[in-house]
Write a structure and sequence with these properties.
heterodimer; A: 255 residues; 2 domains; two-stranded antiparallel sheet; 10 helices; B: 249 residues; alpha/beta; six-stranded mixed sheet; four-stranded antiparallel sheet
Chain lengths: 255, 249
């Protein structure tokens, strides 16, 4: 039985699962922007909010973090770059290399923001069907008549549909290569190339099979979309988020 | 009445390989047809013309009297297809969403979609799995889900491409039972398989393909002895001179 990646929609009964997808997109945008302007206290508040959402929606954080492992390498590189290049009072000095205090604070802040945005994306994908995303994108783009709205919405819906497929392919390909002692090759570039090419080929083959299956079931851009319906719960969630955003901005300006 | 009429169907792939060569075939409404043949003999290529997934290089395919190319949507609604790889056929994030995918494409109203999905899930016995992610189902359940997805579109013909691949014994029995129930309900069944042992006892017609042509066409009991001449393994019991029996007994 195929084990599905956690970076995909999982059915559930949490508030996040029940919220209108348009509001969820709005929340993601709002929190992402607020996190850009927020200081450490503000980021702490947003982190608490996200922690509550993770616990409530029962997001499988442990397996999710495992899939984010390459992202953490990127964060580490960003942190190091910040620590080593920002001028200020040095915390640790070794020959000509110095880690500065402002660099450390700024690096932590940037990484924290990125983690918040990544977790938001994870929560969004975890609680939203790709068909709902497609319908919401179409709704948001409706005023822009000059854009090929159904095309854009279909593409976005399919991208979200394909993320778990690609991750699964990557996992299977990596396991197959490990079974043939790829770990003995120490050159990371060589390992990346050997993983990358079969992965791309298999992903295209899988995409091809999926397209044929969708075509066989009459897929087109004009289909019955999920009914988008804003309820009192959505407006209440928006109100709560605006209050939290106001608080984050307030403490960021104050401190 | 013939539900499928194929006349002089030829298909040449873009690399020049001849996939089908002047195939003529008529299938009666309600028939249970098994298509066998070695790899690359053109079985899948043939059935993919039935709902316009492939376009003929020459010749014509009619479903229920209407050429496929004339009304592609109608052909795809009437001919449901269950693919070899059940995983790649799964489109929805839940069992319900996957079955609803077809009716949504037909632009049906929401209440009609719910009705069709509930009915299809009840037929294949997956009603209690409606909110589950399809990837967590077993092999046999995934095949039944694929059948439900097809049934929700209310087809007349159901094509099963290697339906028993990588299934265990209970899985094979589950799928076979489902196929027989569909046949008894009046659907025309076309089954592509190498595993003739599992299905031949229930079929009323056997086609053998080789190099893009139908080389034998008849009642299974009459031509089962010739199978190995065409590179298809004959059921073990028929090699022993006995009648092929059902896997459900």
């Amino acid at each position: 039985m195929a084990q599905l990646t956690t970076f995909s929609f999982q059915p559930g009964t949490s508030v996040l699962h029940k919220l209108d997808v348009r509001f969820k997109i709005l929340f993601v945008i709002l929190i992402s922007f607020i996190s850009l302007g927020g200081g450490l206290m503000g980021l702490g508040t947003l982190s608490m909010l996200i922690s509550v959402l993770i616990l409530h929606s029962r997001l499988p954080l442990k397996s999710g973090l495992r899939e984010f492992r390459f992202f953490f390498i990127l964060l580490l590189l960003i942190l190091m770059a910040r620590m080593l290049t920002t001028p200020g009072v040095p915390l640790i000095e070794f020959k000509s290399i110095a880690i500065t205090r402002p660099g450390l604070v700024s690096g932590i802040r940037i990484c924290w923001r990125l983690v918040i945005i990544a977790l938001l994306g994870f929560l969004f994908v975890f609680s939203t069907r790709s068909s709902e995303i497609k319908a919401a994108v179409e709704w948001f783009l409706k005023p822009f008549g000059f854009l090929p709205v159904p095309h854009i919405a279909t593409m976005l819906g399919l991208i979200v549909r394909f993320i778990p497929v690609i991750l699964n392919q990557a996992k299977e390909t990596a396991e197959a290569q490990r079974a043939r002692c790829l770990d003995n090759r120490k050159n990371p570039l060589d390992r990346l190339v050997r993983l990358g090419f079969p992965l791309i080929r298999r992903t295209f083959e899988q995409a091809d099979r999926l397209i044929v299956a969708m075509e066989a079931r009459c897929y087109s851009e004009n289909r019955t979309e999920p009914a988008l319906c804003a309820t009192r719960k959505d407006w209440m969630a928006l109100f709560i988020l605006i209050v939290i955003s106001g608080w984050v901005l307030f403490i960021s300006v104050l401190l | 009445m013939d539900i499928i009429e194929i006349e002089n169907l030829t298909h040449r792939f873009s690399n020049g390989t001849l996939g089908l060569d002047q195939v003529n075939l008529r299938i009666k409404d309600g028939a249970f047809v098994v298509v066998a043949g070695p790899n690359g003999s053109g079985k899948t290529t043939l059935v993919r013309h039935l709902n316009g997934l492939l376009r003929p290089t020459a010749g014509c395919v009619k479903v229920d009297g209407v050429p496929v190319q004339k009304d592609l949507l109608r052909a795809r609604r009437l001919v449901g297809m269950m693919f070899q790889d059940a995983d790649s056929q799964i489109v929805g994030e839940t069992v319900y969403a996957d079955v609803a995918f077809g009716p949504e494409n037909l632009r049906l109203a929401h209440d009609q979609i719910s009705e069709r999905v509930a009915c299809a899930l009840a037929v294949v016995g997956l009603k209690d799995f409606a909110d589950q992610p399809p990837h967590l189902l077993s092999g046999g359940e995934k095949r039944r889900l694929a059948i439900a997805g097809i049934l929700a579109m209310e087809p007349k013909v159901i094509v099963c491409d290697e339906p028993f691949t990588s299934l265990d014994y209970p899985g094979v029995r589950q799928v076979l039972k489902q196929m027989l129930a569909l046949h008894q309900a009046g659907h025309t069944l076309l089954v592509i398989t190498h595993d003739l042992e599992k299905v031949l006892a229930h079929a009323d017609r056997l086609l053998i393909m080789q190099k893009g042509k139908i080389v034998r066409d008849g009642i299974p009991a009459e031509i089962v002895g010739e199978l190995e001449t065409y590179g298809v393994r004959a059921p073990r019991v028929s090699q022993l001179g006995m009648e092929v029996c059902s896997w459900l007994n």
